[in-house]
Design goal:
122 residues, mainly alpha
Length: 122
């Protein structure tokens, strides 16, 4: 009798885990353009969150190719590219030069958001 009780409890736990894995979704990182713009403005004004910034730089954004291009521009600011050295660290995330470069990327994102078509659901 004890064996049957243990077997049923184990079966219930394993069955619940299987259902969770089949019907559950993997966590995804899907920032919106507005959230990204706010993050860029925060970094440019020296008020950004280091963790949120590193997450943005490190995670590809496959759902929005234009936003992925903006992310790659930010990675180029962080790591440097052929034309610019890596941004120097500052009090929060970057020094003055890095914040100015992030501000220019934020302006590009603002233009991209302004060109985005708007719609209303009825």
């Amino acid at each position: 009798m004890e064996f049957i009780a243990i077997f049923l409890v184990t079966l219930l736990i394993v069955g619940g885990l299987a259902v969770a894995l089949v019907f559950g979704r993997a966590p995804t990182y899907r920032p919106s353009r507005q959230d990204t713009l706010q993050l860029l403005k925060d970094v440019a004004s020296n008020q950004g969150n280091e963790g949120a910034w590193q997450l943005f730089l490190g995670m590809p954004i496959p759902h929005d190719p234009d936003l992925e291009e903006i992310r790659q521009l930010c990675v180029a600011v962080d790591e440097g590219d052929d034309e610019h050295p890596p941004a120097t660290p500052g009090l929060n995330i970057y020094g003055r030069d890095g914040r100015e470069r992030i501000g220019k990327v934020a302006e590009k994102l603002e233009i991209l958001i302004a060109k985005e078509p708007s719609y209303k659901e009825f």
